[in-house]
């Protein structure tokens, strides 16, 4: 395991928990989540084949009264209500243990089985819909070692589209496009564990971009990165047209990239509003274990 594992212990525990004896919906691996046949992919009605224009892009999220308790009795989510419109960029912030990763893992059904519900474009996330949902929601784990498992980056990025039934002749183009989108063109033959954490985080993002998701969910994109790695991933995220839901401790990133933020604390959503306004409220931030970013 890499030295970076420490920053993602919580997410790793989540991933391992669902990998273990009792997967709540299906298997735990993101590539397995992504797997599906082409007819499972949700297409936009009436949209031309190929690129779908942003205006007609799906990507709405509705979370209602979501509660979740881990098998050991830890109550991680205590009634979350949240709506995200297509194309919105929303940061989920809060102290360690607030429930951020647990919430994100519900977006494509990796975790399920509590009370309440999550719907993506009006489709409730449940066992029957989970394949369809996973073609729409691209989830990037905090620890790239949970996402990258193939001998080469190219194979990791190709995995999702192959298992979605994308024609062989289009796979190469998908991989090239996804790697270009994260500034990693030409790295198809590189070995994941030879890359820096920042590169592996961007490659992890490419493994979901290659499936053309409408929604990107990214757990702690900048955690553990050096300043350059952090800037690189921020500039990629700032340019994405997809709906973006990102958990983070990096309030300076929130200020720059995410117009809306919600604060989770102890499994509850305690604030939701424009990031610029919430980041000015030093007392409220401090009350929830956060600190106003320096300018
Ligand atoms: N696999 C697990 N089993 C039991 N408790 C867990 C597991 N994963 C996380 N938790 C607990 O659930 C709560 C929320 O954790 P998490 O969602 O990882 O928070 P965050 O991502 O905000 O740090 C914490 O109390 C954490 O210890
Ligand atoms: Mg977490």
Can you walk me through this structure?
A 6-stranded mixed β-sheet has the order 6-7-8-3-9-10. The protein has 295 residues and is an alpha/beta fold. It has one domain: P-loop containing nucleotide triphosphate hydrolases (Rossmann fold, 3-Layer(aba) Sandwich). It has helices at 9-19, 30-34, 100-104, 130-136, 153-164, 168-181, 197-209, 227-239, 251-257, 275-278, 282-287, and strands at 61-69, 75-84, 89-93, 115-120, 123-124, 137-140, 215-219, 243-247, 260-265, 268-274. Adenosine-5'-diphosphate is lined by residues 10, 13-14, 17, 70, 72, 74, 76, 94, 96-102.
Characterize this entry briefly.
The protein is an alpha/beta fold. It is built from 11 helices and 10 strands. The protein is globular.
Bound molecules: adenosine-5'-diphosphate, magnesium ion
Strand fraction: 15-25%
**Silhouette:** globular
SS elements, strand count:
10
Distance between the termini: 35 Å
CATH H-tier superfamily: P-loop containing nucleotide triphosphate hydrolases
* Low-confidence runs: 1-56
Series of H and E elements: HHEEEHEEHEHHHEHEHEEHH
Work out the helicity level.
25-40%
Major β-sheet strand ordering: 6-7-8-3-9-10
Structural class: alpha/beta
What would the CATH topology be? Answer: Rossmann fold
**Largest sheet geometry:** 6 strands, mixed
Number of helices: 11
CATH hierarchy class name: Alpha Beta
Number of domains: 1
Q: For this entry, what is the oligomeric state of its chains?
A: single chain
